[in-house]
TrEMBL record:
GO biological process entries: tRNA nucleoside ribose methylation
Protein name per Swiss-Prot or TrEMBL: tRNA (cytidine(56)-2'-O)-methyltransferase
Family per similarity comment: Belongs to the aTrm56 family.
CDD domains: aTrm56-like (cd18083)
Protein location: Cytoplasm
Subunit structure: Homodimer.
Any Pfam family matching the protein: Trm56
Enzyme class, spelled out: transferase
Cited HAMAP family: tRNA_methyltr_aTrm56
GO terms for MF: tRNA (cytidine(56)-2'-O)-methyltransferase activity
Keywords on record: Cytoplasm, Methyltransferase, S-adenosyl-L-methionine, Transferase, tRNA processing
Amino acid sequence: MKKEIVVLRLGHRPERDKRITTHVGLTARALGASGMFLASDDQKITDNIEEMTGRWGGDFFVRNNVSMTKEIKDWQAQGGKVCHLSMYGINLPDAVPELKKQNKLMIIVGAEKVPGEIYELADWNVAVGNQPHSEVAALAITMDRIAETDPLTVPFENAELTVVPMAKGKKVIHDDELKEKNRQEH
Ligand SMILES: C[S@@+](CC[C@H](N)C(=O)[O-])C[C@H]1O[C@@H](n2cnc3c(N)ncnc32)[C@H](O)[C@@H]1O
């Protein structure tokens, strides 16, 4: 059964957090999440990430302006579990065995102070080390540690653009060139 991971982003302030919330979404997508719920109203974040997904492939969704408690409760009612990332939680290495067992997991990250209610609603409050750092780093490390297969080697379907990895320089190919390359190879 394929693991389903979604991210719930709390506390986004449109005037301050555009870049970091976009990075939360792009990191979630790059490491294999299916989508991000944004508990604030900033349609531009949705538009930017959807535009990136259109070019770089996969089918990552962003849902703007959700109610955080409703989204958490709906997720749990569908059998999903919720992991809130907070430096005050239990340390990630101790939570990994349980998190790895989950097939339907919501990962919550905050921005400014996270309401106390979230700590109560979450199935786990997990720290990526008990020192303050960044929601993007916390999310990336968690997704990497709980992944079944290496998330950095998974190809993205229906990409318009694909990077050709190389030691020096940059090479990006367009989907029509990729199709032609695959046709010649097979
Ligand atoms: C920059 S922090 C600000 C936290 C805020 N000052 C508070 O007290 O809730 C923003 C988010 O990054 C994540 N974060 C930062 N450090 C973390 C850590 N050590 N472990 C897990 N998550 C962390 C949490 O999701 C947090 O809500």
